[in-house]
Amino acid sequence: MKNLLTATLIVGFAFGFQSCKKEQKPTDEAPKVLKGLTLNILPTWEGATMVTGKMQYSKPDGEVLQLRTWGMILAKLALVKSDNSLVMLGDGYQWVDVASGRLSFNYPDVPVGTYKGIQFQLGPDSAANHGDPNLWPSNHPLNANLSGLHWGWSGGYIFQAFDGEFKDSASATVTKGFSFHTAGNVFNQLFFMPFNFELAGTPKTAVLEFKADEFFKNPIELHLKDKSVSHSTGNDEKTLMSKLIGNASDAFSVKSVN
Amino acid sequence: MKKGFSGLFIIIVVAVLFNSCRKDPSLPEEKTPYSVTYINPRSIFPEKYGMPALPADNPLTEEGVYLGRMLFYDPVLSIDSTVSCAGCHAQQNAFSDPKPYSTGVFGLTTNRNAQPLFNLAYSRVFFWDGRQKTLRELALEPIQAHNEMAMTLPYLRKRLASIPRYRDAFNKAFGSEPDVFNMTLALEQFLLTIVSKDSRFTQMWPGNFNILTQEEKTGLQLFNGLVDEDPVTGALRGGADCFHCHGSVFAQANNPNFGGIANNGLDAVITDKGFGGITGKSTDIGTFKTPSLLNVGLTAPYMHDGRFATLDEVIDHYSDQIKFSSPNLNPQIKVHGPKQRLLTTQEKAALKAFLLTMTDTVFTNNPAYKNPFK
């Protein structure tokens, strides 16, 4: 009888503890995904952090400007592996909104490995650009009601919006408005930001620098007093937009991955 | 005795072991003490609007929505039981007030025009100055405002608890006695369900233009057209560029940072700081929430102070009277300054005709939104 009691106790203990144990994965298997990559966008003007609502950004021609809006719809946002294969971040879409500080994006699972840069396309491809923007989930970057970067049935998405005010010179008292809206698939452009980095171990943060000044002055300076509006329609506006987007070749870079 | 003790010991050990696997006893028990009927949001929100981001902690239920509707129409929410939410938000006016300033308890008046209430599930900020971000917070403000309903929340809870129909309705909706928090949830539910989706404008979306008359089509082209400059005369021509702030199927920009909160050039000198009064930022002074233009034919008077009695006056403002020196004027408007667009009489009439396609009488007669006490 005593033996029976002892056996019962042992079985009871074993069963009880076993039922409480968590499932454990084999320990000899190296993790293949990094638990968390954060992309932080750093908007700058000549290397300094840029903020909206400050009339303090000067151009070589003396014009001074402030931004009220700098919004962008990114597509094909991906890490580029050393063999040129892509690791799409989420579904590749993202909405960047400087005015509201929507500048940080977290991707929970990213494959570990060696990468040579990060890329994105400005604006979605034609099919998504002209699809129904209200069918996307309410929190999706392409949901038109979320970003407002959409022109309804008439023109698809605004890939990038710069809106603000400018003065002809620092001493001028009169301010004028400017509005540059990039749209239309002719302006879809892929930007590759080279940067060698390794993803392994602890969660990582990548900082991408978005240089607003590049759009306005390098290599072609945009004189706002000559033309301060473009919605990417008509020949004049498309010419202006080509200059703005053409200036963007050095506008984006990876600052760090740590 | 020894046998009995051993048996008891075994039972205790096994019980302790099994008990150690149970959930934390401090967590609430999962129970459903009352029964609600959940509403499928797809039955409320049309596909062409997309599914809004609804509050996860306040699912729509038939009981909750009905309680919210009762509260919305009941003057017992005001201190002297004379003013209800519906008193300033009339369904026939798309839940707006035909007076520039609404009248609250004791004949006191509000400081701004009462905004229409519909499609709020798609809005991210509320009130003209965008000071609230949820409908439950919105609901509490007029109830407590001294010049609207002037109620105190503890007294309101007591009053609701003393009324049998509310004891019954709160129990059905939330399984609780009347309380202020659940009251705000019920009002939130009702407000979320108020959807305007049956205007000719909405039927037209996203391109069924053949339902419009020729004049309305001209108005649509003006509404969606960009302003251009005549290279010879320098005069402005082309469209009226309404869509930058009133585009989308909602006829409204909902991103506060991209047309959703803006200064539309009403005044050279700002007397009402609007959003700037909330944020304290100089760059927000004189900016206000951009309203939807759906049902705009029913929501006169217009602007935050109800200064324009008619749609014609509104169109005249945007065509001829923009104050380009107004601080923080929206860049989309400012970019054309100091020239006025100067629409012709025919263009103004066409624009008005198009705006009137946004009237939704199915919505203004929808029995689901009517006074439940009648």
Provide a compact summary of the structure.
Chain A is α+β, with helices and mostly antiparallel strands. Chain A is built from 5 helices and 14 strands. The longest helix of chain A is centred in the first third of the chain and has 19 residues, at 2-20.
**What's the name of the CATH homologous superfamily of the largest domain in chain B?**
Cytochrome c-like domain
The strand line-up of the biggest sheet of chain B is: 1-2
What is the helix tally of chain B? 16
Name the pair of protein chains with the most residues at their interface, and give those residue counts. A-B, 53 and 47 residues
* Helix share bin of chain A: 10-25%
How does this model look, in words?
The complex is a heterodimer of chains A (258) and B (374). With 258 residues, chain A is α+β, with helices and mostly antiparallel strands. Chain A is built from five helices and 14 strands. Chain A has one domain. In chain A, the strands form two sheets. In chain A, strands 3, 4, 5, 6, 8, 9, 10, 11 and 13 form a nine-stranded mixed β-sheet that branches. In chain A, strands 1, 2, 7, 12 and 14 form a five-stranded mixed β-sheet that branches. About 5% of the residues of chain A have low confidence. Chain B folds into two domains: 139 residues, Cytochrome c-like domain (Cytochrome Bc1 Complex, Chain D, domain 2); 162 residues, Cytochrome Bc1 Complex, Chain D, domain 2. In chain B, a hairpin with a 6-residue loop joins strand 1 and strand 2. The radius of gyration of chain B is 26 Å and the shape is globular. The N and C termini of chain B lie far apart (76 Å). About 4% of the residues of chain B have low confidence. Classes of the chains: A alpha+beta (258), B mainly alpha (374). At the A-B interface, helix 1, strand 4, helix 3, strand 9 and strand 10 of A face helix 1, helix 11 and helix 14 of B.
